[in-house]
Amino acid sequence: MNSYVLSFQEIDKTKLSMVGGKGANLGELSRLMGILVPEGFCVTTEAYKKIT
């Protein structure tokens, strides 16, 4: 089963092809101590492909 929406906490650099560069970087930043990243999510490239 594919997840079409991932929270920043679920994303790391291994998901680059799923969420793109900005999404992967926000996911990585959300894991670093001292870096405040607002809660958020990314819609995956798979979701985009499904609706277009």
From TrEMBL:
<dbReference type="Pfam" id="PF01326">
    <property type="entry name" value="PPDK_N"/>
</dbReference>
<keyword id="KW-0067">ATP-binding</keyword>
<keyword id="KW-0547">Nucleotide-binding</keyword>
<keyword id="KW-0479">Metal-binding</keyword>
<keyword id="KW-0670">Pyruvate</keyword>
<dbReference type="GO" id="GO:0046872">
    <property type="term" value="F:metal ion binding"/>
</dbReference>
<keyword id="KW-0808">Transferase</keyword>
<comment type="similarity">
    <text>Belongs to the PEP-utilizing enzyme family.</text>
</comment>
<dbReference type="InterPro" id="IPR006319">
    <property type="entry name" value="PEP_synth"/>
</dbReference>
<keyword id="KW-0418">Kinase</keyword>
<dbReference type="InterPro" id="IPR013815">
    <property type="entry name" value="ATP_grasp_subdomain_1"/>
</dbReference>
<comment type="function">
    <text>Catalyzes the phosphorylation of pyruvate to phosphoenolpyruvate.</text>
</comment>
<dbReference type="GO" id="GO:0005524">
    <property type="term" value="F:ATP binding"/>
</dbReference>
<protein>
    <recommendedName>
        <fullName>Phosphoenolpyruvate synthase</fullName>
        <ecNumber>2.7.9.2</ecNumber>
    </recommendedName>
</protein>
<feature type="domain" description="Pyruvate phosphate dikinase AMP/ATP-binding">
    <location>
        <begin position="17"/>
        <end position="51"/>
    </location>
</feature>
<dbReference type="GO" id="GO:0008986">
    <property type="term" value="F:pyruvate, water dikinase activity"/>
</dbReference>
<keyword id="KW-0460">Magnesium</keyword>
<comment type="pathway">
    <text>Carbohydrate biosynthesis; gluconeogenesis.</text>
</comment>
<dbReference type="InterPro" id="IPR002192">
    <property type="entry name" value="PPDK_AMP/ATP-bd"/>
</dbReference>
